Amino acid sequence: MGELADDVVEGRRCSSCGRWLTAGDEAEKRRVIFLGDEMAKDIFGKDDPVGKTLLVNNSPFTVIGVMQHKTQMGVYGGPDATLDYGMSDVELPKFDAMTETIKGAGIAGELESVTIGHFQSMMVKLKWRAVRPATLALLAPVAQTFDIRGSIQLQESGAGVLVTSPLRVAVRGQVKSKNLGKLEPGKPLDAESDVEVAAISIYIDGARSWSSTSSTASSA
Question: What predicted TM-score, i.e. pTM, was given to this entire model?
Answer without folding.
Answer: 0.57
